[in-house]
């Protein structure tokens, strides 16, 4: 068999494996299991290999469109949910798969094409294709990584997916029209202009996604500002309340003297009345966590959970000289406990466990609650039943200040949410 034929056959498979690798890397935010991504990538390769050997004639555009559709169906089957995000990712993958190889092919024509035509060695052909495919895979993965950086910052609804998909659809249609209307072989100059056009389409795609994400983040910021402002007021109220309690405790000695004198004078009724007034004036809460603000947050959530028939167990403490801003800790506690209570009230098992761990400079908050259905992640966060997910976005944004990110672990019908804080140089909570 001709060595060129062998190289061509081998590298057609290598090319598919490169695309499968990109698909595996690109779809990482959509799945909790890496094996789900392996299955999606494998389905793409198998589909394309089958289409290469069908008896009826298919254009490359149609074949790769079918391959992308099959991958999308497999995405929806291996892990249910996130349909809008998966459709968007499949659209981006299909569009970039056409634009990027066309650009690389044009660069090849401007550089080594004439030399490849004249060479008599299949080895040099394999060498050039190896370099090209390596560059293609690296650039494709870089574009995918850039898109992921933008897309993981927002919650992708069908509305968002449709809007974000516009540049991908326009790019695919443009490429299709160029190929359909092409009646003869294009000159090198025209191919160069088309390559620049494809580069522009890729840039437009990235810029469009970035601008849309920034717009959505601005909306989130307004919602966060309102939420965080309310929480800040709540924290200030708690600190004032504990300051008043501290003042009251300082005056306890005087109050005890008054009661003692009333009893010595046998004014028992007056002493009892005075004690009742003291009890009504202030009720000292039970200290649970070692810090006033987190105590009040926990007591408030316990009271709310009790009203819903939920048992909230807490093994939580605030270490001394903790390198965390108190406000940031309150944001994480408030949102994680609110989410846990909201989820647990619909479950048969009505228990929530709050705990924490500390190892060297890392302090981690853990909240464990039952699930009514398997956990479905969208861009690294569970899909919100309210559709906005502002609470978890607040938690994520807060943890990013400390170099951490929210983590989810599902086991035996329960999910444990972990929020790690990595220490700073100066302590905040003392």
UniProtKB/TrEMBL annotation:
Per its UniProt record, what SUPFAM superfamilies does this chain match? ATPase domain of HSP90 chaperone/DNA topoisomerase II/histidine kinase
User: Which branch of life, at top level?
Assistant: Bacteria
Please name one Pfam family that this protein belongs to: HATPase_c_5
Q: Which UniProt keywords apply?
A: Membrane, Transmembrane, Transmembrane helix
CDD domains, alphabetically?
Answer: HATPase_AgrC-ComD-like (cd16935)
Which positions fall inside the Sensor histidine kinase NatK-like C-terminal domain?
Answer: 325-418
Where do the coiled-coil regions begin and end? Answer: none
Membrane-spanning residues: 6-26, 38-55, 61-78, 87-104, 124-148, 160-182, 194-213
User: What GO molecular function annotations does the UniProt record carry, in alphabetical order?
Assistant: identical protein binding
Q: Which PANTHER family match?
A: TWO-COMPONENT SENSOR HISTIDINE KINASE
Q: What is this protein called?
A: Sensor histidine kinase NatK-like C-terminal domain-containing protein
Q: Which organism is it from?
A: Caryophanon latum
User: Taxonomically, what lineage is the organism?
Assistant: Bacteria, Bacillati, Bacillota, Bacilli, Bacillales
């Amino acid at each position: 068999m001709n060595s060129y034929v062998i190289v061509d056959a081998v590298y057609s498979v290598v090319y598919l494996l490169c695309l499968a690798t990109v698909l595996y890397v690109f779809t990482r935010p959509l799945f909790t299991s890496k094996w789900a991504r392996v299955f999606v990538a494998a389905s793409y390769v198998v589909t394309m290999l089958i289409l290469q050997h069908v008896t009826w004639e298919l254009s490359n555009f149609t074949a790769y469109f079918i391959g992308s559709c099959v991958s999308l169906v497999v995405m929806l089957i291996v892990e249910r949910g996130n349909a809008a995000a998966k459709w968007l990712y499949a659209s981006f993958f299909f569009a970039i798969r056409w634009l990027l190889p066309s650009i690389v092919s044009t660069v090849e024509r401007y550089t080594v094409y004439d030399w490849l035509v004249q060479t008599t060695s299949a080895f040099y052909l394999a060498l050039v294709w190896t370099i090209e495919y390596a560059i293609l895979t690296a650039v494709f993965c870089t574009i995918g990584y850039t898109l992921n950086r933008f897309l993981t910052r927002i919650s992708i609804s069908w509305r968002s997916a449709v809007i974000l998909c516009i540049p991908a659809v326009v790019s695919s249609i443009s490429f299709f029209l160029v190929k359909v209307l092409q009646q003869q072989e294009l000159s090198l100059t025209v191919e160069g202009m088309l390559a620049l056009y494809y580069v522009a389409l890729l840039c437009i795609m990235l810029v469009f996604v970035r601008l849309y994400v920034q717009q959505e983040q601005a909306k989130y910021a307004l919602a966060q500002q309102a939420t965080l402002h309310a929480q800040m007021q709540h924290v200030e109220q708690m600190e004032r309340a504990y300051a008043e309690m501290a003042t009251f405790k300082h005056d306890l000695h005087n109050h005890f003297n008054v009661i003692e004198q009333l009893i010595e004078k046998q004014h028992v009724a007056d002493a009892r009345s005075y004690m009742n007034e003291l009890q009504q004036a202030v009720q000292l809460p039970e200290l649970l966590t070692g810090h006033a603000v987190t105590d009040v947050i926990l007591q408030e959530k316990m009271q709310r959970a009790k009203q819903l028939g939920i048992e909230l167990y807490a093994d939580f403490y605030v270490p001394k000289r903790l390198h965390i801003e108190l406000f940031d800790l309150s944001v994480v506690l408030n949102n994680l406990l609110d989410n846990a209570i909201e989820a647990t009230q619909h479950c048969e098992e009505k228990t929530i466990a709050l705990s924490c761990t500390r190892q060297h400079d890392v302090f981690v908050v853990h909240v464990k609650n039952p699930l009514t259905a398997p956990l479905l992640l969208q861009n690294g966060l569970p899909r919100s039943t309210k559709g906005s997910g502002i609470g978890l976005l607040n938690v994520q944004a807060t943890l990013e200040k400390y170099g951490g990110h929210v983590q989810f672990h599902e086991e035996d019908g329960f999910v444990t949410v972990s929020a790690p804080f990595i220490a700073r140089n100066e302590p905040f909570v003392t």
